[in-house]
Specification:
It is globular, with a radius of gyration of 24 Å. Strands 6-7-8-3-9-10 form a six-stranded mixed beta sheet, sandwiched between helices. Strands 13-12-11-14-19 form a five-stranded antiparallel beta sheet, with no helix packed on it. By secondary structure, the chain is α+β, with helices and mostly antiparallel strands. The protein has two domains: about 230 residues, 3-Layer(aba) Sandwich (Rossmann fold), CATH 3.40.50; about 100 residues, Nucleic acid-binding proteins (OB fold (Dihydrolipoamide Acetyltransferase, E2P), Beta Barrel). It binds adenosine-5'-diphosphate and magnesium ion. The site of adenosine-5'-diphosphate has 10 residues, from helix 1.
């Protein structure tokens, strides 16, 4: 029998007049990683705390199978929800060994069994030989993996991770991100990873939820959210976006970067596209390079074509300020905004 999903429906939380979480619905399914992405202060941690039972619900409900986990009227206490938590700052118990940290949530089972389960989880996160160490003897990334092992050891119905990489150095981040994703997939737990980093979110997520000001802007696969944003705000959460203005006639929009299909009434119309949709092309339209910035693997050139400005990402050393180039905007990557 596969375990039940955790189904959160129209979760709402107010602080005074402010709606910190505004009718958010999401489903955490076993074996799937859901990433919740949004700017600082948009309500991510509050939502996670509501699911964990650390924050009451002002509206909505949380269910798993036939069981009601929480509603404004009734709520299981956190320790009875079978939900594991991993925070940004590891939060290991400093006075317990690494092994005892992982075994902490297994109280009530025989000692030998607790140690055996803890050892198994430490091996899964690549720390099988560190069980006797103290937390302070491990690096930040290793401590974060211990925190994950501790959260997963009691076989929770879901595990919630709040900004698990933000306290790690850039060079450790990628490695820990991969290790955590692998361990979550092996565990088969339903996972919710909260982050304000678009790259972390897209690299980890099966399901992505974009959030701003307490509300869900868009939910879907990372590919769908990136390529077909539901709004300009949703688009901006995942990366740079260009907006192009033009005039629509008979479902076609005329712009300085070409003509594009965009069904709708005649009149002014805005289009959006990602910078990588614009490429150098000898058959393309003319544009002038007005500024150039070196960014290592790529350079970013600011272009002006008629009334339209746009950024071109190109190989370094190919372009010069003041030069005229020809560019093509991929019609398949252009989306109408209005
Ligand atoms: P995030 O994790 O996305 O940065 P939070 O969930 O921590 O955002 O906060 C969302 C909003 O709710 C913020 O405006 C924050 O100031 C407010 N908030 C969070 N917790 C409380 C609280 N206990 N009392 C009052 N306001 C709060
Ligand atoms: Mg937060």
């Amino acid at each position: 029998m596969t375990p039940d999903s955790l189904i959160c429906t129209r979760l709402t939380r107010r602080f005074g007049k402010r709606l910190a979480v505004d009718s958010v619905s999401l489903t955490l399914a076993p074996g799937r990683i859901t990433a919740l992405l949004g700017p600082s202060g948009c309500g991510k941690s509050t939502l996670l705390r509501m699911i964990a039972g650390l924050e009451p619900l002002d509206g909505g409900e949380i269910r798993s199978g036939d069981a009601l986990i929480a509603s404004p009227a009734e709520a299981l206490p956190p320790e009875r929800r079978r939900i594991g938590l991993v925070f940004q700052d590891h939060a290991l118990f400093p006075h317990l060994s690494v092994r005892d940290n992982v075994a902490f949530g297994l109280a009530g089972r025989p000692r030998a069994e607790r140690h055996e389960i803890a050892a198994r989880w430490l091996t899964r996160v690549g720390l099988g030989d560190r069980g006797r160490d103290w937390p302070h003897q491990l690096s930040g990334g290793q401590q974060q993996r211990v925190a994950l092992a501790r959260a997963l050891a009691p076989a929770p119905r879901a595990v919630l991770l709040d900004e698990p990489f933000s306290s790690l150095d850039a060079h450790l981040r990628g490695e820990v991100r991969q290790d955590i994703a692998v361990a979550l997939r092996e565990a088969g737990a339903a996972a919710l990873v909260v982050t304000h980093d678009a790259r972390d979110a897209m690299l980890m997520a099966d399901d992505l939820i974009l959030m701003d000001q307490g509300q869900v802007l868009q939910a879907g696969s990372p590919e769908a959210c990136y390529a077909r944003p539901a709004s300009l705000d949703a688009a901006r959460l995942l990366g740079d976006i260009e907006v192009l203005s033009g005039e629509r006639r008979d479902g076609r929009v005329e712009t300085p970067l070409g003509r594009f299909d965009a069904p709708g009434p005649d009149g002014p119309c805005r289009l959006m596209f990602r910078p990588e949709a614009l490429t150098l092309d000898p058959e393309g339209v003319e544009a002038r390079v007005t500024a150039l910035a070196y960014g290592g693997a790529t350079s970013e050139a600011r272009l002006q074509a008629g009334e339209a400005g746009a950024t071109l990402v190109a190989a370094p050393g190919r372009l010069a300020v003041g030069e005229t180039v020809r560019v093509r905007l991929d019609p398949a990557a252009v989306l109408p905004l209005d």
